Each structure stands twice: as structure tokens, then as C-alpha cells.
Amino acid sequence: MDVDEGSGLRDSTEAHRIPRRSRWHEAIHQFKQQTLPACKPVLTPKWVITTFLLMGVIFIPVGLITLRASRSVVEIVDRYDSECIPEEYKSNKMAYIKDSSIPKNCSRFLKVYRRMKAPIYIYYQLDNYYQNHRRYVKSKSEQQLLHGLKFNATSTCKPQESNNGRPVVPCGLIAWSLFNDTYAFIRGRSELKVNRNNIAWKSDRDHKFGKHVYPFNFQNGTLIGGGNLDLSIPLSDQEDLIVWMRTAALPSFRKLYGRIEEDLDADDVVVVKLMNNYNTYSFGGKKKLVLSTSSWLGGKNDFLGVAYLFVGSSCIFISIVFLLLHMKSQRSP
Amino acid sequence: MTTGDPLLSLGDRSSFDRPSIGSTYATSASSLLEDSEYCLTRTSDVNDSEEATRSVGDTNCLEKPPSKFSTCRASRKHFSSAESQFFSQFPLEFPIPDRRRLVTWGAMELQNFNSDSAAFEISRATTPEQEKLSKSQRVCHKSVQFEDNQLHGKSPRLIYIDDPRRTNDKYEFTGNEIRTSKYTLITFLPKNIFIQFHRVAYLYFLGIAALNQLPPLAVFGRAASLIPLLLVLSVTAIKDGYEDWRRHRSDQHENNRDALVLQSGKYLAKKWKNIQAGEVVKICAEETIPCDMVLLGTSDSSGIAYIQTMNLDGESNLKTRYARQEVASAVSEGCEISGLIRCEQPNRNIYEFHANMEFQGNKFPLSQSNIVLRGCQLKNTDWVIGVVVYAGQETKAMLNSAASPSKRSRLEGYMNRETIWLSVFLFVMCFVVSLGMGLWLIRHKDQLDTLPYYRKIYFNKGRDNGKKYKYYGIPLEILFSFLSSIIVFQIMIPISLYITMELVRLGQTFFMIEDKHMFDSSSGSGFQCRSLNINEDLGQIRYIFSDKTGTLTENKMEFQRASVNGINYGTSLPVADPLHEKNVAGLGKRKWKLKSEIAVDSDLVELLHRDSSGDERIAPHEFFLTLAACNTVIPTIDQDTSSSCTESELHDKVETISYQGESPDEQALVAAASAYGYTLFERTSGHIVIDVNGENLRLDVLGLHEFDSVRKRMSVVIRFPNNAVKVLVKGADTSMFSILADSGMDDHVRSATQKHLSEYSSQGLRTLVVAARDLTGEELQQWQYMYEDASTSLTDRAIKLRQTAGSIECKLKLLGATAIEDKLQDGVPEAIECLRQAGIKVWVLTGDKQETAISIGVSCKLLTADMQQIIINGNSEDECRNLLVEAKAKYGIKSPTKQNHSLKWKKNAENDYLEVPGSAKSFSVQQWYAGKKGVTATTAPLALIIDGNSLVYILEKDLESELFDLAISCRVVLCCRVAPLQKAGIVDLIKTRTEDLTLAIGDGANDVSMIQMADVGVGICGQEGRQAVMASDFAMGQFRFLKRLLLVHGHWNYQRIGYLILYNFYRNAVFVLMLFWYILCTAFSTTSALTDWSSVLYSVIYTSVPTIVVGIMDQDLSHRTLLKYPRLYGAGHRHEAYNLQLFWITMIDTLWQSLVIFYIPVLTYKESTIDIWSMGSLWTVAVVILVNMHLAMDIQRWVVVTHVAVWGSIVITYGCVLILDSFPMFPNYWTVYHLVKSPKYWLTILLITIVALLPRFLFKVVQEIFCPSDIQIAREAEVLSKQDEI
């Protein structure tokens, strides 16, 4: 009944007749007849249980290590946008932030709860700020950042591409809305030294921002969006700008401000002298200052560790369930 | 009338006035004769008159009242007087009543016959008619077909023989250059693009690309958005271009062939493409005819030429064509040929040709028999000379070359249904985005002016100050947001799937073609895929409609048994045993060698060579003489040069003889006669020469009554050298026994023969009865007188000829009967059994008679002993209804659907039954069931046997549903005596009433309509030419390959394509959903974190190759297992690989996976410094790895190629990302290099992959362990047993 058997027989006789077919021809033949040597995985209980067990065995240690790394990070977060408004302006934050005659300086006290080893990263965090808005993300000119005034086709920068008939360098909403709060840290009596260099990606500094491009006609409009730039420094050295222009992925984001290269001991109190310049009040954005150490995994985030632990333990659980079921079914028949 | 008209009539008159009165008379007389002949043949042949209907339609003659033959004459009169009207009148002769009779069903023809007619009629003799019928009717369905002719039908085409310049002077007929290619270099681009945009999918693409060009919407870079469309277009264009290039090449080859053309008095070689209408061309034997030509002369003095029309209509037999005697004689005398041919405008009808010819002052009509068509081959004739009338594109062959209609696979239909669901999802997502956008805008209305990340107003010192920037009011912004989200989510509708599927099918086709198990080494024909769209339908076939002759059987007729003088011979044929060899040697020196050896019955041979001259020997002698003489077979002799030396040493001269004829039965009979020593080796129109055991016997053929479907017999009147005259008759048993002589002595022979006949018939053999009688001088004279009168008669010639035949075909002496076997093909019973186990219903539709059909059914295991046979052959509507209802009642079959309707019908039917008197009861349901009668009715499988006659009533009337209910509850259905269109009708019956897929398999032109009607048409490259193959979707050499095609390739293809569709839906949806979740985090602003290029390349490069490879190469089970357990085919019937439930499961899985892939990175990188491009890069890589791992998890057979494709595409993705991140002008510059440095990135990707796939994996495991499907069980068994072996 099985015709195939016969033909298989024919195959073997053929093979006898031509005993030495080259391997390549053999492979081609098998390919055409769809009989190439193949691995056919089958989900046997044994295989499944082993797989789950293996996954659990790998995931749980990874989770533990990850969680440990995350836990080792010391992070101090301080929201200051609402605190740094004088009492009389609490009801009218806009008036406060828009009036340039009012001094914007403000002091915050941060208590270090655990010893922080250098380098301590200083971040500012903005919430509810859609740096990923389509209008915003596109509102810059890569070419202009690299070539400066030589490059004129800056229509992507609208509505911030020119002022008074002259082009703006750097153009676009991103640059225009440059964050301009500043922080100074004092521990005890001495000011902590903040390293503000190398906060941006080297690749950006070297290849995306021109070494001979200087700000021009910047922040000269009727509406000031944010920080100003030193006209004498080329863009490639304006690291705050470079950091700011790497637009964030999510509406709540941190950006690197600088590094404190001294250790902070537990129970140290750090006084932050900050200039509360940046206007997030108009849209209800929050501003936070973050001091954080770093592990091999980056900042403090327990999610990864917890997730790995959870997945790992569920895998173990599943494998045990399957094992029990398998044993039961083996016993019963 | 066109402009050519005045000229024509002028020319006519001048030419007509010139000849003398006598010659004028002769002309009109001869033309009269010719045309009335024409009338007669038309009326006698119902089928042909159907074609006439068409040609009449062409020439606007329908307005004229039909008065049968008087019209004929009337037109003749017109002809001689008013020349110019000739062409409008000419086809008038066809009587309209005949046309009316032929309604839609070709089978009405069968009404004329008795329901059980002779075996002879089944044979090839009817087939050409049926073929014609099927063709003509098919043609009729196409309304466009002949409208061009209707427009130009009136003006004839003038061909001046051997004067191409004059011929082409005014009209510029096309040259003989043919062009099957679609494009030229210049028209390629616009035309190809135009054709491609006929696809809706491409228009969708174009629409999206156009949307993207709008300034407020430019979501992607403008160029990037066009890339997929351009890619798809260019791939298709390259494919089309390549195909067209091949066509160009074959055209060129065709056009550059040489033919001998009369040039300045000599026949010189000329390229085909340079041949012009009006030129005289000489064709030698075996050559292909380059254009449609009217024959002027042939090597045969009587002007006969034989052609094979295989390329045209698929009939492999030889056809005779004639040169007009007048011209032929002139040609043979070497006169210069010049004359004028008026013929109709080019049309597609290959069975009709109307023209007249003016030659040496004479004028005579030309018809179909005078023309040879392009593509035919000249056979058995040394040379012919003809004048070109139609060349190149205007030839009938070219006008007929139409591609078979394209079919759509069932799965693709389902896929389109789910695509609608996907568009609903798309719409919902876009709606959510635009709604969110609207709400967000309203909430932030007051801040929008100054919002740093929105800022809609210019705050510049300058003229723009205070103007709004890209803000059109909230309603318009909502609209734009909707549109731009469509752009972003566009790949939710998997356009690329169409391309992928095409490529996958191409690959599958490759493997089907290369499968050596489907290669027919005997004929050297491999498997062919002619349609690329329905590979997966092969996995879901529920009904197979099979032709019998040539499909189940070999269509090689073999003479098996003979009953001579009441004695049965050939019961035990020796198979080349030495004794037999001696016997043959004893025959004396055989001069003739047949192409194929035939086993002979030694007793009979002995009897023939016994020297007794008694009655004992006379009967067999006459029997074989009749077989050798009473036929229309043409012998051809090849000098045997290459055969083995030993044999030629033994015999002085061995000549190989082969027989060409219209019917394979006749060929078999003649060959058999030759094997018994009666070799027909020469035939001319006047005599035949038969070699009787070494003596040449020259017989004068006085007259020949050809086979016709009313008489069902043929006869020849032959004068022996001793002046004795005999009439030799052979025919169907039913028609023969009634005309035998009534003498008491023969009664014994008669009953014995009848017994033998029924025995042969029950063995599935085709039977013929042979008889003869001597004619007395008186009878001969009377017959000769009648015959002459009849054959020269102008009216009712067919009837008169029939009467003449009847006058001598009586009081015959029974000589015996023959039985011819139509051998079953190899492996047919096994294949059918296997298909049946696979849950496929095999129906056989055949033109054979009932007994033959049943016996074939038994021998190919279609009918088994435990079956109850329901036989329906009614002769009226009521009868059929009763039979159906009775059968249904008996076996308790209820209409599953439309219960009300059928109940009503049942009542009606019952009433009718009461009214109909007992006569109907004679047709009552018969049944045989191993002795028992209908007791176990419900359990025993049923077999329905129905004949074409009943089908006429059933299919024409409202009984269709009754038949359907009955038929689908039967395991086997056998339809006998069905016409080609009825075959299609039965296929249609199933197709319209069920969702099940149908497959039709056949080899002949009579199966074409069925093949085209069925969901899948399979052609057998067999004896009957290529017509069926041309119309089919798949073609192969043997019926048994069907088993492998369906059970193995069909199964694989179905599983592959089903998975491919689901996977592609998933692949695109998971990507789109991922984008969607992100957009919800960007204030609904349709930002994509992925770069434009990544979005575009995702479905084009990153994930395309593995799907294609898996779609082509993955197999769930090995072919061995699939063939071993045919039941596994049921997976296709149950729609296991693709159904709505699976779709929804996949979509839920997709939702989960998209949430995982979105939220894990978001949570991991929460409140971090990650920028949008890094996040995008992570997502790109994660989604590619995820979908590839998903695929990897589902792959069931890992071969090297699969490994390369799956892992390779992940590597390639990384490569692309690295490259894209290395250009400083892109905003994503260097991101991936930063990312890969952090372990967080890798941990995130690993987590995404595992968490996303975990539920699916779990689902798979649970399903496989706790409720495995058949396939999974078989797979486990297969793999584990193999492992054990190792």
C-alpha cells in the first residue's frame, strides 16, 4: 500500500548504481526532494520540563544579581518646582517665572541617607514634558548644527527658524526651549566641585555639533523659551545644549547635569543653591533634582530584577507542575 | 459594407463574364453541390450546427427566416446572380430549429439515442464531436468572442494567389510575425505599472504614500515612504520583464523558422515572419504549418493531405484535408497558379471556414476541409502547397491563444475576510489616537501658543510674528491626526503578505515540480504548475471529479477477447511464453511488424491456419477480414532500419507498420487483425490491400457507410478479387442484434455471443459486434443505384445515406464480437483507496456506458462489494424525481439544509409518484448488498450511479437539490454517458452548494470545461493531447500522482500557507501595536521612536526572509507518514491550519506580546536619561528578535537553510542598525553603539523575548500534551520512532 516504500527501494538501487555521487550533488538532490537532514523538535514532557527548569535556573540568579545592583544605588530625589516659589506668588506662578526682575534663586537641603561614592551623578528630571512630541522632535536642523550659517534650508525648524529676518543658530524649538536652571552644591562650608564636562555623548560632540558653529541671533525673539547660550563658545562645546537636544523617549525624563566627584557620607547635608529659571509652570510640569550613584546596571530601578525573579520562579513552578502531571500520567496508564 | 465593396463587385463581374456559358454552368453546379453538402452535414450534426449558430451570429443572418434547405437554394441563386451578396447569404443555410434544440446542455444530444447504446459509440468516434461541442459552448459563454467578426463580417478578405503585393496593397494584412509578448522596451514601464496598479493592495500603498506627501502629515521621510511600494513594483516588474523576455525569445525563435515560399517561380526558404498573405508556401512532411493556408495541391494526386491538430485542439489523430480537385490537378500539372480567394475576416472559430475561390475562371466554394491552420503538423503526406490567407496574429491559432482564467485560492479568500478585521483594528487605533489628540488639544487649548513642545505661534521679530504655525483648528487637527496615524499604522494591513505569498508559492511550486515521485518516466513528463495561486487549495480538496478514459485508464486500447462464431477466445492469453513464440514462428514469415506486440490466442491462430475450408474456418476468416477492412484507419509504413539484426536476418524484409485513425478502438482492432495475420497495409480512396498470411488481397471498396450516432454501426461494401461482393458491418451490440438474419441455426451462436458480450462488459471491456453478408448482384445493383443517388443528392443526403445503409445492413450473419480493454493506469486503485481514506470523495464522470463505468469502478476499487448501489436512469423529469425521492426515502437521507423547501418538494414528488403509472417502477432502485436487501441501509456505504440522460432532466430542472442531497450522502458517485458540459454542471452543483473544494482531473478536451469549472483543475498529459493540460492548473503524467500531490504537497502547502498568513498578520500587528502604545505616551502626536528606515525595512528585510523560507520549506510531517496515514489529510478539511479561532488566538497573543515589548523597556528605563532614538533602537531589535524567535518556536523542521534564514536575519538586522547609526546626519547617530555597552539593554531584550513568548509556549505545550491533534500525534510518533531507530 505504501508506494513510497517502493520508491525508496528504487532510491537505494540508484544509489548503488552511482555509488559515488558528490556530496554537493547529494545535498542538492535532498534539497529538491525536501529530504535534507533536519532537526525536528518535539515538545515531549521531558524536554518541556527541562526547558522550564533551565529557564528558572538561569533567571533567578540573574534576577538576584540585578536586584542587588539596583539596590546598591543611592538616589536622592528632590522636587523643587513648587517649593522654590515665594509664598506671595504661589497662586500666580506664571507671574513669578515670567518676571525677570524677581530673583529666582532658591536653596534646598538634601540629606544623604547612605554613603554615596563618587562619581555622583546630578540629574534634573522633568515630568509631563513631552520632549517626544512629533512637532518638537522634528524641530531642529541636523545640518545647521553641524554647518552653522552655511546651511540655510532650515524649514524643519519652524516656527523658530529665523528672527528679524535673520536665521537663528541653533534653530528650532528644541534649542529654543533649552533648560536653564542651574545648581550649586555646598556641603558644610565648602562648595562641592561639579564636573560639567563630558556629560554629552562624545559622538554627538564630535560629529553632530559643529566645532566652528557659534550661536547666532539666539533667543532674540519676543518669547524667551529657555536658556541662552554663550555666543563665544562653539556648539560642540555647549554640552548642556547637546544633552538637551537628545530628546527624551518618555514624557518623564532625566538629563545629566554634571558629576560630583567627591564621596558623600551618610547624614551629610548638601545645600543646593539653584536658580529656578525654567518655566514648567505654564503646563504643569514638575522639576526634580536627582543625585544618584551608579552601578554596572545604571541607575536605581528594581523592575528588571523583580521581573527576572518573577519569571524565573514561575518557570520553576510550571516545570514542577508539569513534572507532577507527567508522573501522574505515567503512573496511571 | 466597407470601402472595398465597389471594387469587389466590379472585379467580380469582369471575372464572371469572361468564361463561357458551359463553364459558368459548371461552376454554379459544382458550387451548388458543394454547398448543399455543406447544408446536409450541418443538419445532420447537431453539434456542428451549434457552431453554425455562432457563425451565423457573426454574419448577421439571423434576421432571415429559416426555411431549411430552400434557403440553401435561395442563397445559391443569389450567389450566381448577385455576387456581392454572397458573403452575407452564405451561412444562411443553417436551419434555426436545430439551433434551438441545443439549449444549454450538450447532453440533450443524448436524447436522440437509446440510453444504453453500443460500446463503439463511446469510443473516440463521439469524442471529437463532444470536444467541438465543449469548445463551442465555452466559446459561446464569452460574449466578447465574436463581436469583432460581427463588425467586419460583411466585407470579405481578398487574397490573390501568388500575388502578395496585390493582396496586401489595399488592406495591409498583418505579416506572419507573431508577438505573444506583452511589452516592448518602450512600453514596458508605463504598461507594466498600469497593469500592476490594477491590484487594490497597490492602490492602498500608493494612497498611503500620497498621504505622506501632504505637508501636515509627513510622518515618514518622503522618500522612505515610497520605498516599499517601489520595491514591490520593481520586483514584480522584473518578474514580468523576465517572463516577457522569454516570450520574446520564443517568439523570435518561432518567427525565424524557415518555410519554402514560391518566389519568382521557385520555392525558396523564407523566414516565417516574412511570409505574407497571398504567398504560396510549400510544406513538407512533418513540418509545422506557419500560417493558415488554403490548400492548392498535395503530393497525393487526389489532393488529400493529413494533418495533426494536436497543438490546436489537442486531438492526436490525423485529420484529412483536401485541395480542390480543380486546383490540385492544375498544380500537379505544373501550371502557374493564380486566382482569387474571398474569405471571411479572421476569427477564432477553428471549425469553420467560409470562402470561395476563383480559379481559371471557375468559381467554387471552400470550406473547413480545404484549409490547414497554423500550428498543425503535416503527416503522411510528402508535401502540400497552399496559399496564405491568414498570417501572424490573424491566424486562428493565435486568436485562440487565451490564457486560462486565473483562480483564487480559498485560503486567500478567508485571509481577505480577516484582513477586514485588521482594517477594523486599524480604524479603531487611528480613532483612538485622533480622539486622544482632540481631547489633549482641548485640554491644553490655552497653553498651545507657548507650550515649548507644541508652540503654534511665531514669536519672532519680523513679518511672521503672531501667525499660527501648522495649526488648522481642532477639527482639522483631529482629521490630520487620524490620517497620519493611518500612515504610521499602515502595515497593519499586511500588503507585503501578498508578495510573500507569491514568492512562497513559487518556491512550493519548485519543489512540486522537482519531486521525482511525481515524474512520469514512461512519458518523460514531469509535474507542471500552470497556476501559481492555488497551491494551498490542494490541501483541502473534498471532491475529486475524475474523467475515466485516459485518466483512470491508459487510453491504450488493447484487443483482449474475441467471440468468434459463438466460441470464446482469449480467456488465457499467453504472455510471451516460448510455446507461443513457436506458434508465431509457425505462422510463416511475418512481413509486418507492429509498433506494439499483441498477445494472440493460440487456439484461434491454429484455427485460422487449419487447412480445412469448412464453415469452421470461414467465420473467423471473415471476422478478421471485417476487422481489417471495416474501418477508416490509415496504415503508414516505416522502413525498418534500426531494429535488431537477428530479426532482419530471419525475415527478408520487416516493415514496421503503424496505424493512424480517428478512433483508438479501430486502431486496436486493425492491429489485432494484423497480429492474427490479416494486415491492412494500403488504403486509397478506391481500394484497400490486406496481407492475408502472406498473400496480398486487394479489395475494392465500393462504398462506405460511416459510423453515425443513430445507427451506431459502420459498414463497407467490398468487392473481392473473385467478384464476390460483401457487406461487412461492425457496431454496437444493441444496434446489431436487431438486424441479424433470423435463421434458426444461428440462434445458438447468437445466444452464446450475447452471453460473451455481457461477460466482457462486466469485466470493463468495450465490446463490438461484427457481422457480414454476401450481396447478390441484384441487391448490389439496387444498392449502387441508391448509394449513388444518395451521395450525389442535394437534399436530405444524410437521411438518404442512412436509408441506403439500412437497405444492406440487414439479414446479417453474425461473425462474432470483440472486446477491447482500456487498461487501468498504474496504481489507480491504490490511489483511489488512499484518497478515499483521506476523506476525499472521488466521483467518476465518464462518457462510457453504465456497465463499463460500473466495471471500471469495481476494478479501480471505487465500488466495493459492501456498497449499496443506487442506480438512476430515468427518461423523464418525473421518473428522475421519483427515483431520487425513492432512493432518499429508502436510505433515510434528509436534506441537511433548506428543510422546508425539500419537504415541499417531497410532497410534490409523492403526488407525482401516485399519478405516474407502473412504468416508472421498472426503473426502481436496484441494489445488491451481499445477499441482504436494504436491511442495513443506514450503515452500508452508498454508491450512486447516474447517467447523462437523467442528468439532463435533473440539472436542467429543479431537481438539483434532490440530487445534491443524495449525492453527498453517497460515498461514491459514478456518472456515465455525460457530455462535457454536464461534467462542468456536476462540478458546479457541488461548488455552489457546499463550501468544499473541488478538483477535476482529466486528460481530454472534453474535460476542459470541468477542469476550468472546478476549484483546482488537474490535467493529465496523456494520449489525447494537451488541451486539458492547457486549461489546467496543474498537470502531471499519471493519475496516481494525485495521491502524492494532495496528501503530501497539498498538505504541506496548506499547512505552510495557513501558518504563513497567521504569522504575517501577527508580525505586522505586533509591530503596529508597539507603535500604537508609544504614541499614547507622546501626547497622541504619532511620533515614532523608530527611525523611518527601520520602520520601512522591518517587513522588507528584517523579518521577510525567514517567513518565506519557512513558508517554502517547513514540513510538519514527512511524506512517508503522510502517505501512510491518509487520514491526516483531514486537517485541511477541518481547516486546522487557518481558521477564525486561530486568528483570534493569534491576535490576543499579539496583543500580549506588543504590551510586553512596549512596557518592559518603558519600565526598565523609567526615569532615566534614555533618549527617543535609543529607545527606538531597542524596540527595533527587540521586535525583530521577538518575531523571529516566535517563528523559530513554530518551525517544525530545522534544516540548514532555516537556520541561516532565522539567525541570519537577526544578524542582518543588527548589521542594518549598525550601518544606519553610523551616518552623522541621522538623528539616531551612534545610539546602538552606546546601547550595546550596557548590560541593561541585553537583559531587557532577553526578558522581552521570554516573557512575550511564554504564554504561547505554554499554550503549545498544554495543547500538545493534553489535547494533541492528529498531526501532532503522528509527528511525535514519527520523530520518536526515528530517534529510537538511531
From TrEMBL, chain A:
Keyword Transmembrane listed? The answer is yes
**Keyword check for Ribosomal protein:** no
Name the major location. Answer: membrane
Q: Where located?
A: Membrane
**Classification via InterPro entries:** CDC50/LEM3_fam
Q: Which UniProt keywords apply?
A: Membrane, Transmembrane, Transmembrane helix
Transmembrane region(s):
47-67, 303-325
Family designation = Belongs to the CDC50/LEM3 family.
* The name this protein goes by in its record: ALA-interacting subunit
Species annotation: Ziziphus jujuba (Chinese jujube)
Automatic annotation (TrEMBL), chain B:
**What InterPro entries does the entry give?**
ATPase_P-typ_cyto_dom_N, ATPase_P-typ_P_site, ATPase_P-typ_TM_dom_sf, ATPase_P-typ_transduc_dom_A_sf, HAD-like_sf, HAD_sf, P-type_ATPase_IV, P-type_ATPase_N
Q: Which reaction does it catalyse?
A: ATP + H2O + phospholipidSide 1 = ADP + phosphate + phospholipidSide 2
Q: How does it sit in the membrane?
A: Multi-pass membrane protein
Q: Where is this region: Disordered?
A: 1-21
Its Enzyme Commission number? 7.6.2.1
One Pfam family of this chain: PhoLip_ATPase_C
Membrane-spanning residues where?
420-442, 478-499, 1069-1090, 1138-1160, 1172-1191, 1198-1220, 1240-1259
Q: What family, per the record?
A: Belongs to the cation transport ATPase (P-type) (TC 3.A.3) family. Type IV subfamily.
**Keyword Protein biosynthesis appears in the UniProt entry:** no
- Residue ranges of domain P-type ATPase C-terminal in the record: 1029-1269
| This protein's name | Phospholipid-transporting ATPase
Domain of life the protein comes from: Eukaryota
User: Could you confirm whether the keyword Magnesium appears in this record?
Assistant: yes
Q: Where is the P-type ATPase N-terminal domain?
A: 159-224
List the keywords (alphabetical): ATP-binding, Magnesium, Membrane, Metal-binding, Nucleotide-binding, Translocase, Transmembrane, Transmembrane helix
Record Gene3D superfamilies: Calcium-transporting ATPase, cytoplasmic domain N (3.40.1110.10), Calcium-transporting ATPase, cytoplasmic transduction domain A (2.70.150.10), HAD superfamily/HAD-like (3.40.50.1000)
Q: What class of enzyme is it?
A: translocase
Q: Where in the cell is the protein located? A: Membrane
